[in-house]
Amino acid sequence: MGRSVKRSMWTHTAQRSRRARRPYPVRTVITRSQGNTSCFQRLPAEVFHMILDRLSGWLFKRCTLLLPTEDRLTLISSMFSQMPCFKLEECTAAGCLGFYGYGVFLKTMISGWGEVKWHRVLHFLCSFTNLLPKIKMAVTGTPGVSCSLELQLRLFCRQVLLDPWPCKDTLFWLTRILKPWPMVLQARLLFILYGPLMPDGTLAWQGIVEREMSDSDLGHMARVIVLLYSNLDHLTDWTTDTMQTILEELIVLPEVWHMENVARLFVLCGNTVCYSFLANKLHNGQLLEVSRLIVHIILVCEKNGYSMNWVVRMVHQVCQGFNTSERFAFIQRLEDMFSEVTMELIEIVTAGNHHEDMGPFQTLRSLLQSRAHFHAKFLLHMFLQNE
């Protein structure tokens, strides 16, 4: 045995090893026409999150560190254009993680960039996804007709630009998404992005008009309204009047909302938003609308077990802007509205058979209880104020 024998043995072993090794499978991209299975659904969720969160974003960021922003965005476009799951209306798989992955990648990629570069990123995203024409189609059409497009826009904007970020950054993206549109369409877009959903996953355009919604249904909408209101001092294109107009438009989309849903939204928004809205309407002489809204706010607080003291303080705060005669007229109008709403509910209860649907009867009962509790708290509050 010499070198030739050893070389022959090594060669034989290497050949056998190569024969035993299977070739790596070729990864293919699934197109819309090939089926409704997302290419990301093949991976375990933990592996998918790890790849996007810890490898791809940071790796791409480090590898392209010396490139200009435009070149980096061009590279992203060339990669993502091959993945239907990263593009609007190209992946129809239920529960696809593509937009989530897009959001994680983008957040990792542009973390630490300045606002000027973020504007370039937004321009790139609008071009890559054809975002603005799709938004225009959704907000100018009949609500609910293009339900698939509405949901795609909601998922893309929420999972890529809004939900993954802290509040300050969410505000940047949200205001840039809303800015190109007139206020009536901004209200439409806010509903598409944050409005309640029906059990089948579609937007509750009619549901919010016809039936009561829960706190969880309206919670996302309330939080984004509070976010905008609480940052008005830092926004150049939004004022209190702007938000008032947007809210006025929002609560009549696609028709006038069920009154308890309007009241619930303002209860969830809290004192600052609620008082601002009511004070503005009173300033414009809309005493009837304000009285009806306050009665339903009191009703919602009673139904949900919220503190009646909050409503009492808000009503007292509203009264502070009146002189004595105006204050008396406001309280009298509020009492009259309690009676009107009570009679409306009595008519509903007595008009039909409610053995199966006890909702109207329970609402009437809650209204009577809320009236009593509100009066007790209000009288106590006024008594303590006069001491």
Give your account of this protein's structure.
The protein is an all-alpha fold and 387 residues long. It has 18 helices and no strands. Helix 15 crosses helix 17 (324-351) and helix 17 (324-351) packs antiparallel against helix 18. It is elongated and about 70 Å long. The termini are far apart.
What does the secondary structure layout of this molecule look like, with pairings?
Blueprint: H1 3-20, H2 45-63, H3 69-80, H4 98-110, H5 115-129, H6 131-140, H7 147-162, H8 167-178, H9 183-194, H10 207-210, H11 215-229, H12 240-250, H13 259-269, H14 271-283, H15 287-304, H16 308-319, H17 324-351, H18 359-386
Helix pairs in contact: 2-4, 3-5, 4-7, 6-9, 9-11, 9-12, 11-13, 13-15, 14-16, 15-17, 15-18, 16-18, 17-18
Instruction: Output the number of helix runs.
Output: 18
Q: What percentage of residues falls in helices of 4 or more residues?
A: 55-70%
Stretches where pLDDT is under 50 for at least 5 consecutive residues are 3-38
Q: How many β strands by DSSP?
A: 0
Question: Briefly, what is this?
Answer:
With 387 residues, the protein is mostly helical. The protein contains 18 helices and no strands.
Q: Which features would summarize this protein structure in a list?
A:
387 residues, mainly alpha, 18 helices, disordered N terminus
